[in-house]
Amino acid sequence: MTNLTNNTVNKQFFDLHTTGIGYLNRIREVKVKNGKPYLSCTIAALRGNCQNAEYTYINCNVTGEKAKSLVEKCIEANKANKKILISFCVGDIYAETFVYSTGVKKGDVGINLKARLLKISSIKIDGELKYSDKIEHLENQSEPQEELSNVA
Protein backbone atom coordinates (compact mmCIF):
# COMPACT_ATOMS: atom_id res chain seq x y z
CA MET A 1 0.00 0.00 0.00
CA THR A 2 1.33 3.46 -0.92
CA ASN A 3 1.34 6.30 1.57
CA LEU A 4 0.16 9.36 -0.40
CA THR A 5 1.16 11.79 2.34
CA ASN A 6 4.82 11.05 1.65
CA ASN A 7 4.40 11.92 -2.03
CA THR A 8 3.55 15.59 -1.55
CA VAL A 9 5.60 18.11 -3.48
CA ASN A 10 7.72 20.41 -1.34
CA LYS A 11 6.91 23.92 -2.64
CA GLN A 12 9.36 26.69 -1.90
CA PHE A 13 8.73 30.43 -2.19
CA PHE A 14 10.58 33.66 -1.66
CA ASP A 15 8.45 35.92 0.53
CA LEU A 16 8.76 39.69 0.28
CA HIS A 17 6.95 41.20 3.26
CA THR A 18 6.72 44.94 3.87
CA THR A 19 5.40 46.46 7.10
CA GLY A 20 4.28 49.98 7.79
CA ILE A 21 1.65 52.40 9.00
CA GLY A 22 -0.82 54.09 6.69
CA TYR A 23 -4.37 55.15 5.97
CA LEU A 24 -6.88 52.58 4.71
CA ASN A 25 -8.89 53.92 1.73
CA ARG A 26 -11.05 52.81 -1.20
CA ILE A 27 -12.33 49.59 0.35
CA ARG A 28 -14.19 47.76 -2.39
CA GLU A 29 -15.24 44.38 -3.72
CA VAL A 30 -13.84 43.68 -7.16
CA LYS A 31 -16.09 41.56 -9.35
CA VAL A 32 -14.29 39.31 -11.81
CA LYS A 33 -15.92 38.12 -15.04
CA ASN A 34 -14.85 34.48 -14.78
CA GLY A 35 -13.93 34.18 -11.15
CA LYS A 36 -14.75 34.84 -7.56
CA PRO A 37 -15.01 38.48 -6.36
CA TYR A 38 -12.29 39.66 -4.00
CA LEU A 39 -11.80 42.42 -1.43
CA SER A 40 -9.47 45.25 -2.40
CA CYS A 41 -8.27 48.49 -0.81
CA THR A 42 -5.67 51.21 -1.11
CA ILE A 43 -3.20 51.98 1.66
CA ALA A 44 -1.63 55.44 1.81
CA ALA A 45 1.56 54.30 3.56
CA LEU A 46 3.39 56.94 5.57
CA ARG A 47 7.13 57.48 5.03
CA GLY A 48 9.76 60.06 5.82
CA ASN A 49 9.98 62.63 8.58
CA CYS A 50 7.07 62.44 11.05
CA GLN A 51 6.69 66.23 10.92
CA ASN A 52 6.38 66.25 7.13
CA ALA A 53 5.37 62.70 6.16
CA GLU A 54 4.90 61.66 2.56
CA TYR A 55 2.55 59.01 1.20
CA THR A 56 3.21 55.96 -0.93
CA TYR A 57 0.01 54.46 -2.31
CA ILE A 58 -0.29 50.67 -2.43
CA ASN A 59 -3.25 48.95 -4.12
CA CYS A 60 -3.91 45.74 -2.21
CA ASN A 61 -5.86 42.55 -2.64
CA VAL A 62 -6.87 41.55 0.88
CA THR A 63 -5.80 37.92 1.23
CA GLY A 64 -5.28 37.25 4.94
CA GLU A 65 -8.49 35.84 6.49
CA LYS A 66 -8.21 37.97 9.64
CA ALA A 67 -7.29 41.00 7.51
CA LYS A 68 -10.43 40.43 5.39
CA SER A 69 -12.61 40.37 8.48
CA LEU A 70 -11.04 43.54 9.86
CA VAL A 71 -11.20 45.45 6.56
CA GLU A 72 -14.86 44.48 6.13
CA LYS A 73 -15.55 45.91 9.61
CA CYS A 74 -14.07 49.23 8.42
CA ILE A 75 -16.30 49.64 5.33
CA GLU A 76 -18.86 51.91 7.01
CA ALA A 77 -16.16 54.11 8.57
CA ASN A 78 -14.53 54.38 5.14
CA LYS A 79 -17.85 55.37 3.53
CA ALA A 80 -18.27 58.02 6.27
CA ASN A 81 -14.82 59.45 5.32
CA LYS A 82 -13.37 58.70 8.74
CA LYS A 83 -9.58 58.48 9.05
CA ILE A 84 -8.64 54.80 9.36
CA LEU A 85 -5.00 54.41 10.38
CA ILE A 86 -3.64 50.87 10.29
CA SER A 87 -0.43 49.08 11.09
CA PHE A 88 -0.04 46.50 8.31
CA CYS A 89 2.00 43.82 6.58
CA VAL A 90 1.79 43.39 2.81
CA GLY A 91 3.38 40.67 0.74
CA ASP A 92 4.88 40.37 -2.71
CA ILE A 93 4.81 44.08 -3.53
CA TYR A 94 5.46 44.95 -7.19
CA ALA A 95 5.16 47.92 -9.55
CA GLU A 96 2.93 48.07 -12.61
CA THR A 97 3.10 50.84 -15.21
CA PHE A 98 0.18 52.56 -16.90
CA VAL A 99 -0.38 55.54 -19.20
CA TYR A 100 -2.51 58.48 -18.03
CA SER A 101 -5.48 58.87 -20.37
CA THR A 102 -6.82 62.24 -19.17
CA GLY A 103 -5.76 65.43 -17.44
CA VAL A 104 -2.49 67.33 -17.47
CA LYS A 105 -0.53 64.07 -17.30
CA LYS A 106 -2.27 62.60 -20.36
CA GLY A 107 0.21 60.40 -22.22
CA ASP A 108 2.66 60.25 -19.31
CA VAL A 109 3.66 56.93 -17.76
CA GLY A 110 2.62 56.34 -14.16
CA ILE A 111 3.32 53.58 -11.66
CA ASN A 112 0.94 51.65 -9.41
CA LEU A 113 2.34 49.67 -6.49
CA LYS A 114 0.40 46.47 -5.89
CA ALA A 115 0.55 43.91 -3.10
CA ARG A 116 -1.41 41.42 -1.02
CA LEU A 117 -2.62 42.69 2.37
CA LEU A 118 -1.68 39.84 4.69
CA LYS A 119 -2.10 41.23 8.19
CA ILE A 120 -3.40 44.20 10.14
CA SER A 121 -1.76 44.66 13.54
CA SER A 122 -3.76 47.67 14.72
CA ILE A 123 -6.59 49.99 13.67
CA LYS A 124 -7.32 53.53 14.81
CA ILE A 125 -10.44 55.28 13.56
CA ASP A 126 -10.42 59.06 13.97
CA GLY A 127 -7.62 58.63 16.52
CA GLU A 128 -9.41 56.05 18.67
CA LEU A 129 -7.83 52.59 18.98
CA LYS A 130 -10.35 50.04 17.74
CA TYR A 131 -8.19 46.94 17.33
CA SER A 132 -4.74 45.76 18.37
CA ASP A 133 -3.40 42.25 17.99
CA LYS A 134 -1.26 42.90 21.09
CA ILE A 135 -4.40 43.46 23.17
CA GLU A 136 -5.99 40.41 21.56
CA HIS A 137 -3.01 38.30 22.52
CA LEU A 138 -3.03 39.60 26.10
CA GLU A 139 -6.76 39.13 26.56
CA ASN A 140 -6.75 35.82 24.65
CA GLN A 141 -10.09 36.66 23.05
CA SER A 142 -11.54 34.62 20.22
CA GLU A 143 -13.45 37.54 18.62
CA PRO A 144 -11.48 40.76 19.34
CA GLN A 145 -12.83 42.68 16.36
CA GLU A 146 -16.27 43.09 17.94
CA GLU A 147 -15.27 46.65 18.92
CA LEU A 148 -15.37 47.47 15.21
CA SER A 149 -18.97 46.41 14.70
CA ASN A 150 -20.41 49.94 14.74
CA VAL A 151 -17.58 52.37 14.06
CA ALA A 152 -19.27 54.57 11.47
Structural description of this entry:
With 152 residues, the chain is mainly beta. It has a single domain, classed as Nucleic acid-binding proteins (OB fold (Dihydrolipoamide Acetyltransferase, E2P), Beta Barrel). It is 14% helix and 47% strand. The longest helix is centred in the middle third of the chain and has 9 residues.
What CATH calls the topology is OB fold (Dihydrolipoamide Acetyltransferase, E2P)
Name the strands of the widest sheet in spatial order.
1-2-3-5-4
Q: Could you name the CATH homologous superfamily?
A: Nucleic acid-binding proteins
Tally the structural domains: 1
Structural class: mainly beta
How many DSSP E strands? 6
Mean of pLDDT: 88
CATH class, please?
A: Mainly Beta
Helix content: 10-25%
Q: What is the radius of gyration computed over CA atoms, rounded to a whole number of angstroms?
A: 19 Å
> What does the overall shape look like?
globular
Q: Biggest sheet, open or closed, and with what strands and sense?
A: 5 strands, mixed, barrel
Features:
152 residues; mainly beta; five-stranded mixed barrel; 3 helices
